[in-house]
Amino acid sequence: MTNPTENSVFEDAGMADGAVSSPLPALLLGTYAPKIDAKGRVALPAKFRSQLGQGCVLARGQERCIYLLPFGEFRRIAAQIQRTSLSNKAARNYLRVFLSGAVDQEPDKQGRVILPSILRDYAHIDKDIVIIGVGTRAEIWNKADWDAYLAEQEDGYSDIADDVLPEVSF
């Protein structure tokens, strides 16, 4: 589908002022359209496999997609949520929904992971899917839902840049 950008440019990036920082995590980038088989397995993009190391966690994402997170990123997010006070009802609710659907996966020798039925149902995953790299995570979408979402966002993409990226210039 799309020819993804080379990730190595981002893996060793230092700070803008020339100072050396700890290596940044590899970025998951690009758009892919793999097939899902009858057993609910999907072959992950080859570029992602090396970046996932020993495996990943699949979890409910926003806008009815499935998050695909390297183990380290999943642990970071879960720890961040868990640091929120138990008296915070919104944090409790989010943690319940996020973790109750999460499942750890180790890709098989063909680089496939199983998308559990609970997550396929949540994300309306049937036959045609799209996997998009979103930096430190990837998202698995029903292709029709992704196409509709992207079309909806296109018009506002330029308009929101100043709000979302106030310090970044292109």
From TrEMBL:
Main location as per UniProt: cytoplasm
Protein localization: Cytoplasm, Nucleoid
Keyword set, alphabetical order: Cytoplasm, DNA-binding, Repeat, Transcription, Transcription regulation
GO BP of this protein: negative regulation of DNA-templated transcription initiation
Domain of life, per lineage: Bacteria
InterPro entries found in the cross-reference section: MraZ (IPR003444), MraZ_C (IPR035644), MraZ_dom (IPR020603), MraZ_N (IPR035642), MraZ_sf (IPR038619), SpoVT-AbrB_dom (IPR007159), SpoVT-AbrB_sf (IPR037914)
Residue stretches making up the SpoVT-AbrB domain: 31-73, 102-145
UniProt-recorded Gene Ontology molecular function terms: DNA-binding transcription factor activity; transcription cis-regulatory region binding
Database matches in Gene3D superfamilies: Transcriptional regulator MraZ domain (3.40.1550.20)
GO cellular component: cytoplasm; nucleoid
Family, as annotated: Belongs to the MraZ family.
Quaternary structure note: Forms oligomers.
PANTHER family xref list: TRANSCRIPTIONAL REGULATOR MRAZ (PTHR34701)
Name listed for the protein in its UniProt record: Transcriptional regulator MraZ
Source organism: Parascardovia denticolens DSM 10105 = JCM 12538
